[in-house]
Amino acid sequence: MAVSQLIGSRVQRREDPRLITGHGRFIEDRLPVGVLHLAVVRSPHPHARVVGIDTSAAAAAPGVRAVLTAKDFHAQLAGAMPVTPSFAPEKKYVPDRFPIASDEVCFQGEPVAVVVADDRYLAADAAELVAVEYDPLPAVVDPESAVLPGSERAHSDGPDNIGWDMTFDGGDIEAAFAKAEVRVTERIWQQRLAPTPMEPRGVLADYSPYDEKLTIWLGSQNPHFIRLFISGAMGIPESRVRVVAEDVGGGFGSKISPYPEDYLVPAASRILGRPVRWIETRTESVMTTYHGRGQVFTAEAAALKDGTLLGLRLTQIVDLGAYHGTFGAFQACACLMAGGVYRWEAVQGRTIGVLTNKVPTDPYRGAGRPEGTHLCERMVDRVAQEIGMDPAELRRKNFAREFPFANNFGLQYDSGNYDGTLDRAMELVDYAGWRQRQAEARKQGRLIGIGLSTWVEICGFGPSQATAAATGGIALVEAAQIRFLPSGSVAAFVGTHAQGQGHDTSFAQIVADTLGVPMEKVELRHGDTAEGPSFGYGTYGSRSLAVGGMALHKASLVVRDKAQRLAGHLLEVSPDDLTFEQGTFAVKGDPSAHKTIEEVALAAYGGNLPAGMEHGLEAVSYFDPPNFVWPFGAHICVVEVDRETGAVQVEKYVAVDDCGNVINPMIVEGQLHGGIVQGMSQALFEEVSYDQESGQLLTGTMTDYLVPTMNEIPSLTMDRTVTPSPTNALGVKGIGEAGTIASSAAVINAISDALGPLGIHHVDMPASPDRLWKLIQEAES
Amino acid sequence: MAQRLRLTVNGSAREDEVEPRLLLVHYLRERCGLTGTHVGCDTSQCGACTVLCDGQPVKSCSMLAVQAEGMAITTIEGLAPSDALHPLQTAFWEEHGLQCGFCTPGFIMAASALLAENPDPTDEEIGRGLEGNLCRCTGYVNIRRAVHRAARAMREGAGAPTPMGG
User: Fold this and answer.
1) Chain A closest-CA separation from residue B41 CA (Å)
2) Which of A19, A446, A595, A637 is least surrounded by Cβ atoms within 10 Å, i.e. has the fewest?
3) What is the pTM of this model?
C-alpha cells in the first residue's frame, strides 16, 4: 500500500470556500422561475375534531393559485407515512398517518390545509383566511399517565395509547438482584428537545406532466429513502423521481424521516403543474420538526458493597407524540446500551412507547444512546455514592476489558481500552487535585462537583442481517462508485450525505490515498439520487465513515486492482510483479519500467487492453460491515453551583475519546466540540415544554427554546487515544454523536456530586438555575 | 403599493420598486440574488441574516427594505473582492470555524463589525460581540479561535483580503 499522505492529516475543508463567501447551496437559495409558494395551515389545537374548513376567502385572496385540503391530497397520495420496526418490532397500536389531517387533528401544528400563491407573503396572508372550525378534544400530554388504563386517548378511535411494550432480557435479572447487598433506584427524566438545525427544513418540487418526472430538492440526511417513500406514495416509478439535497444546514437526526411537507409539496406541484416550494419558519420548526428524547426512565441497580455491579433493571417510557416517528423506535436502543462499559450479570430493559397529542419524536443526535449512557452513568454514580466509593474507582472495578466484549444482550463491542481514556482524562483534569479542592470548598459551604462519564456507543449502522429487519427490508449497507475519467481525475459517489460533517474532504482523503492520486483530482459527489449507485443509505447513527467511507475504499481498491492488471499488460509483466507506491505501478526490480495510475486510466479507454478486459476504469461497491463499531471515551466535568442562585458554572470540561483511526483530526475535534455542547446544552438549558393541561407548546421561538450562545460555553480540553476498530479495513469508528452521548451524564453527575452534601442525589435536566434553586431551598429548609 | 428604494449594495448603487412590507433579507436574497444572507429564525435570535448597514451589524430579517433607504449595505458576498478572502473568512476556514456553514455568513459579518471597533478582543469581548449569533454545529470553540486569528492577522497588517486558495 502507498505510504499514506492524506489519511490522518488535518486537511482544510474543501466545502468551506463556498460557505464562507456566501455561495453555499441551501434549499432556500434555489428559486426557479415560475415557482409558487406554499404555506401550511396548521392546527392550533393539540387535539380536536375538524368540523369544517371554509377555503373560499383564501381562494379569492390576491395571488392565490390553490387552497388544498385532505380530500385533494387523497387523490394524489396513497397509503400511510412509513413506520419502521427499528428496535421495537412488536408494535401494538400504530395509528395511520396521512400527511394532512381530515377529521381529527392530533397535535398542534398538524397540517389541515395548504395555500399556494405567487409569493410567500401572499401565501402567508391567505393562510390566515382559511377558516377551520374545530371541536376541541381533551389533550393527552403526560406520557406516564397516558399509559394508565382509562387515560384519555390521543386518537379518539384508538384502543388505548400504547404504541409498543417490549422487554429485553439480558441475563437472569432475578438471580442478579437476589445477590444484592446494595440497591439504588432513580427516576430519570429525558426532556423533549427540538433538534434546531440552523437551517430550517424546506422542500422544492417540480413535477413535469409531459414526461411524468418529479424532482424534489430538500434538506435531507438521506435523499434515497425520501425518493423511495415519495415515489411509492405518489405512484411514480422510483427511477422517475430524483431527490437532491445540496448543502444541508445541520440535521442532527431531524432530517432523516419523511415529513408531511415532503409529500404535500410534490403533490401540489403535480396538481398545479408548476414548481412549488415551502420553507419552514422557525416557529414551525420548533412546533413540527420531529423532537428528540421525550422519555422517562425508572431504574434500579443492584451491587455488592465492594462495588461489584450485579444487575440493572429499567423501564423506558417513550413519549411518541401523536404518531410513531418513521424511525421513532430507534430510541428503544437505550435499553440495549444501558449497561454501558461495564460487566453486569444481568440487564433488563422494558420499553413502552406511548402516544400523546404532541409532534412525533424521532432520532436526535445519539437517539437512545445518550439516554442509555445518561441512565447508566447516573446509576453507577448512585451506587458509588451509596457505598461511599470514589466513582472512578467503581468504574474501573467493573470495566469490560476483554474484546470483543459481549454485552448482556449479545452485542459485540469490537475494541476498547476504557482504562486508557479514563487515565488520560483524570490526568488532564487533575482529578486528585479537584477532589482535594472540592473537600476544601465544602468546608466553606461552596458546592463544587466532579462528574464522570465513561461512555461507549453502538454506531456505524450497520450489518445487513441486523438492519434489514429493523428498516422493514432495506439493509443499511452503503454504496459507492469510483469513476476514473480518461484524463485522470476521479469522480467518487457515495450514498451518505453530509450536513456539515466535511465528507467532501475526509472521503476524498480516503479515495486519494487509496488510488495514489492528488486530492485535487478527486471530486466527491453525494446527495443526488440521479448520480452514482442505485441506492444510498444516508447519514445518521455515526455511520458515514465506518460504512460509507469503507464503501469508497472498497470501490477504490476494485478500480486499483483493475488498473494493476492493465498496467501489467502495458508493461508486459505479470500484475503480481508490480509494486504500487504513490500512484505508480513499477516493475519489481526494475523501477524505471512504470506507469502512473493516471496513464493507466487513459489506457483503459484506449485500444490496447488485455484479452477479456472491458473498457473503462470504474466500479460500484457495496460495503456490508460485519459488526457495528464501538467508539468510547471518558469525559470529566467540574462545576460549581451557586448556592444562592442555583446557577451552574462549568469550571473545567475534559474529554478523552477514542474513535479508532482518524482520517482528519481537525474534523473529529470539531464533531466532538459540537456534540459535547449539544449534550451539555440538554443538561443545562434546552427543553421543549407544553402546558400540562392544554397541551399548548410554550417554547415556540428561539426566545423560549434556549439554544446556548458562545457565552454559555466553557472551554473544552480534548485528547484522544487510538484503538483501531477490527470491524473494517480502515480501523475507523464513528464520532458524530459521541460528544452528545457522553456529555449530559458528565454534567449532571457533576451537579449531583456538588449537591450531595445537601442530601440531593439526583438532578433532572435541564438543570436550570430555577430548578436547582428550588431543590437547594427544599433541602435546606 | 410599491415604493421606490435607493441604496448601495456591496458598493453598487441600486434603485428598485419594493413593497413596503418586504424584509431587507428577502430583498437582498431574492431581488439582488445575494443568497449568502440566511434566514434561520425569523425572530432575530440566530443572527444568520446579519449584514452591515452603514458599517453597523443589523439583522436583516427584522428590518424592512425601505428602512435601508440611502444606506450602504454590505453582505457576505461583498466583504472581499470575488477572487479574494477577508481575513475573517480565511481564519474561519483555517480554524475549522464552520461545519454546516449556514450560520457562518452571519458570524463573519458580526465579527467584522466587532473587529472594526475592537481590533484585539478578549474571549469575553468576542462572546459579547457575537452573542446575537447562534451556531448549532461547532460548539463555538473554533469560532472563537477564528476571530482571534483574524484579529491577529489584521493587526499584523494582513487586513487586506488574500487571494482565494491562499
Assistant:
1) 5
2) A446
3) 0.97
